[in-house]
Amino acid sequence: MLSRTASELYWLSRYLERAENTARMLDVAWHLSMIPFSITARDEIAATLIISGCMEDYEERYGAVQVHNVLHFFTLDDENPVSIYNCIRCARENAHAVRGRITAEMWESINSTWIELQEMKQMGLLTIGASDFFDWVKNRSHLYRGATYGTIMRNDAFRFLRVGTFVERADNTARILDVKHQISDVAGNAAVEYYRWSALLRSVGAYEAYREIYSDSITTENVAELLILSAEVPRSLRACMQMLCELLPAIEGDAGKNAKRLAAVQYARLQYGDVRHIFDLGLHEFLTDFLRRISELAEEINREFLEVTK
Questions:
Q1: Which of 6, 233, 276, 294 shows the smallest number of beta carbons within 10 Å?
Q2: Is 253 left (phi over 0), alpha (psi -120 to 50) or beta?
Q3: In 10 A of CB 11, how many CB atoms?
Q4: Helices 237-250 & 156-182 angle (0-180, nearest 10)
């Protein structure tokens, strides 16, 4: 496979995964911002800017953090490169470039999503409704993923699509967990903490899994163990690294030895990890180190397999 084609497939999936992750993150922040107690709308909405690393860009354009400005910034703002609008636009452009390597149903899913999104942009988020819009983004992502799994051949095109998904997903899960941990209520308000951690679990689709595994009250240590070390939760760090360790060695050819090694080392650290050791080290320190490692892995994937840096 040409490296340019591999790059476009890889970034197609990263952009779509990023759009879904952003919708999930905004959905829970939006709901939390409306809950009373000591939770403030600014704290929860500002966390999305911190997670995405967009605080400076936002402040330059909008100034003070306000709920509706942040929602527009991350959803339909065509000047924000990481908005849902631009993520889906870039995904569609990449899909068009590799039209011959994806199936008709995959293309129709992405193209129709882009057409509907342009219509929504004309209507505006207030008209659509924030929650309805976030549900639409998640449903369109599920539709594309189902079309991919159900129609594409299990060849290198499929592998690069999946590699992009899991690199993006691992990075997002680590960022959300790190930021939510840092803004945890220092006063120890049990109600606030319950809503924050349950919202985090819902944002990564793991609330039901947590209840099934732990059944008791939601604690920081249990949430961290679930989202870092659990092999059964699809968006956990361990599950993402496990899939990368399966996908990268399956790519044809001898390229990518460093990327495969980095993925294997990081997966081993999670496979044999212990939550008590993580908290002894410091959850923030552990997650910061993981983000550095996943960034290094992404750079190696780009250098050894891909052609275009985006």
A1: 276
A2: left
A3: 24
A4: 160
Residue with the two structure tokens 């980095």: 262
User: Angle 56-25-70 (CA atoms, 0-180°, nearest 5)?
Assistant: 40
Tokens of 95: 């899909």
Q: Where are the alpha helices (DSSP H) in the chain?
A: 3-32, 41-52, 55-62, 67-75, 84-97, 104-123, 125-128, 130-151, 156-182, 190-203, 207-213, 220-229, 237-250, 257-271, 275-281, 283-305
Tokens of 113: 């999503």
Decide if 67 contacts 32 (C-beta within 8 A).
no
pTM given for the model: 0.92
Can you state the angle between helices 283-305 and 237-250, rounded to 10 degrees?
20
The domains of the chain are located at 3-305
Q: What is the pLDDT of residue 15?
A: 98
More confident residue, 252 or 10: 10
Q: For 78-119, write each residue's pLDDT tens digit.
A: 999 999 999 999 999 999 999 999 999 999 999 999 999 999
CA distances (Å), origin 224, targets 86, 89, 188, 257, 270: 31, 33, 18, 31, 12
CA end-to-end distance (rounded Å), the chain:
19
Q: How confident is the model at residue 168 (pLDDT cuts 50, 70, 90)?
A: very high
